[in-house]
Specification:
By secondary structure, the chain is of the alpha/beta class. The chain has 22 helices and 17 strands. Helix 4 runs antiparallel to helix 5, helix 10 runs parallel beside helix 12 and helix 12 packs across helix 13. Bound molecules: phosphoenolpyruvate (PEP) and magnesium ion. The site of phosphoenolpyruvate has 10 residues, from strand 11 and helix 16.
């Protein structure tokens, strides 16, 4: 029996035979060529075939997982069509490289550039460039790789890491869970697994690749454990737990559209995070009572010019219309730093996470931010729009941001436009300075939304995308909990409500603590909503308040997790099972 510890990336238990995915080796045996014109023609054939493949993959992804997943293939097509990429390739060919060597070199440079930026949702771009590189190389070298498409029996996919196109082509109906050697909690595989509601352990180290194909495997995505060759007893135990979990999941889904009311009668708002138009449909289906975080970056990245007010209005309006009177919290642009935006011609930064990003850009370029605000205010007419600003570190920033909203309102009024008037204005609390001066910020906001991803990163000085520090990056660390606690206390003292839209809000182990600390709104990925609501219904404020206080006094994140698990297991079967 072999036990491997990795990062718990998506909760649940998967049991089944291993399918070890080893992409065919792509070795460039002919690095030099002496006819650049012929090599360019070879490249163009491969690029054409790649664009065809991507169009097919896009269609398949739309049908299977919706627009959000499919958008990755638009990005891949854009990478191939990028004139800068073509210019880079032609320069290599002129210098005597073969088409495959040119593709390998030019795209490797892009991968390196993006990897150097770390690995947040946008830094997943490195994976996209690597993916495009592999696709073009397979075509140029005549290597087929369709093993994941051809899956015809239920398996657990084991791999070094999975690329966006691996997972799109994958026959997901046959996947029970994932286990990867690389990746962190924000890697593509982790995000996908959470979206699909499948258990996953990532960053488990190269030893996972020693697992034999077909070996019986257990993936415990809650504990971050992978067990191969378990004995009868352990296997039977996991099977019992997996069956119980499946039952709990079915029951949670059946009640997902009912409100989440604690045992002692407090109704908690459970809403969704979305990052692309179209995702609101999945959120509603999962039982979301609104949108707690509409990330608007999709409009700003990958472009040479800033999106116009009209273009933004057309993107936001359908989302607001679909949500009707349910709240929609739109976050203004959170680009820059690690989320590059070509039209901004950003200077190189040594520390992009501590650099020119989000509200800092919006305030430095007020027209850019005001254009977005006008588009949002117009799109919110007749709906329940709220606007929040990301990465606010100081009172002055929040005051300046509010003043821009006033200006946007005045400009729309002058133009005679129809727009939303009663809009709550809030900010994300994701920088420790903001958390520490929450009491000074309350006069300037209607609400706070805690961004636990960045708040954890900045509090523990642990890059949220770097697998090497993934074990340190845990939002349940008492340092983060204490900041969350003081933000909620300061806000409530001033009658300001507090939500949370970082990953922590959907973490079933964190929910009892957050409830006990008094959090008003929980915003999470759609798949996390049914179990979160089911758990809240089994809890009371009377029991979670003292639990939260105990959590604040624990020496570390794992002690906090143990405490919650022990308490939930003791409390009742159902809550123990959910957590
Ligand atoms: C956060 O930081 O917790 C958050 C929700 O914002 P993002 O993940 O987009 O940085
Ligand atoms: Mg953030």
């Amino acid at each position: 029996m072999k036990r491997l510890k990795g990062i718990a990336a998506s909760p649940g238990i998967a049991i089944g035979p291993a399918f070890v995915h080893r992409p065919a080796g792509l070795v460039v045996h002919r690095p030099r060529a002496d006819d650049p014109t012929a090599e360019w023609a070879r490249y163009q054939n491969a690029a054409w075939a790649a664009l065809q493949q991507l169009a097919e993959l896009r269609q398949k992804a739309v049908a299977e997982v919706g627009e959000a997943e499919a958008a990755i293939f638009d990005v891949h097509q854009m990478i191939i069509r990028d004139p800068d990429l073509e210019a880079g390739l032609q320069a290599e060919l002129k210098a005597g490289a073969s088409a495959e060597a040119a593709v390998e070199a030019v795209l490797a440079r892009e991968v390196k550039t993006f990897e150097a930026m770390g690995d947040s949702v946008f830094r997943l771009r490195a994976a996209d460039f690597a993916d495009v590189q592999q696709r073009l190389l397979r075509l140029l070298l005549g290597v087929r790789d369709d093993a994941l498409t051809a899956l015809d029996r239920p398996v657990i996919v084991v791999a070094h890491d999975l690329m966006p196109s691996d997972t799109a082509q994958m026959n997901k109906a046959m996947v029970r869970g994932f286990c990867t050697a690389a990746g962190g909690p924000m890697s593509h595989t982790a995000i996908l697994a959470r979206n699909l509601g499948l258990p996953a352990v990532v960053g488990a180290g190269e030893a996972v690749l020693e697992i034999a194909n077909e070996a019986p495997l257990i993936v415990d995505g809650t504990e971050g454990l992978v067990i191969s060759g378990a004995d009868e007893g352990e296997r039977a135990d996991y099977e019992r737990r997996a069956n119980a979990l499946a039952e709990t999941r079915v029951a949670a889904e059946a009640t997902a559209h009912e409100p989440a009311i604690t045992r002692d009668g407090r109704q908690i708002e459970v809403v969704a995070n979305i990052g692309l138009p179209g995702e609101e449909a999945g959120a509603l289906k999962a039982g979301a009572e609104g949108i707690g975080l509409l990330r608007t970056e999709f409009l700003f990245v990958e472009r040479q010019t800033a999106p116009t007010e009209e273009e933004q209005f057309r993107a936001y309006r359908p989302i607001l219309e679909a949500m009707g009177q349910r709240p929609v919290i739109a976050r203004t642009l959170d680009i820059g730093g690690d989320k590059p935006a070509a039209f901004l011609s950003m200077p190189h930064e040594d520390n992009p996470f501590l650099g020119w990003r989000a509200i800092r850009i919006g305030l430095a370029q007020p027209e850019l931010l005001k254009t977005q605000l006008r588009a949002l205010l117009r799109a919110g007419r007749g709906c329940n729009l709220k606007i929040m600003f990301p990465m606010v570190a100081t009172v002055e920033e929040m005051q300046a941001a509010r003043a821009l909203v006033e200006e946007a309102w005045a400009e729309l009024r002058e133009r005679g436009e129809l727009f939303a008037q009663a809009v709550e204005i809030g900010m994300m609390v994701e920088i420790p300075s903001a958390a520490l001066i929450a009491d000074l910020l309350t006069p300037h906001v209607d609400f706070f939304s805690i961004g636990s991803n960045d708040l954890t990163q900045y509090t523990l000085a642990a890059d949220r995308g770097n697998p090497a520090v993934a074990s340190l990056f845990d939002s349940l660390h008492p340092a983060v909990l204490r900041l969350v606690d003081s933000v909620i206390r300061a806000a409530h003292a001033a009658n300001v409500w507090v939500g949370m839209c970082g990953e922590m809000a959907g973490d079933l182990t964190a929910i009892p603590i957050l409830l006990g600390l008094g959090l008003d709104e929980f915003s999470m990925g759609a798949a996390a909503i049914p179990p979160a609501k089911a758990l809240i219904r089994r809890l009371s404020l009377a029991e979670t308040r003292p639990l939260a206080q105990e959590a604040l006094a624990q020496p570390g994140a794992s002690a906090v997790r143990d405490l919650v698990k022990r308490r939930m297991a003791k409390k009742d079967d159902q809550a123990g099972r959910i957590v």
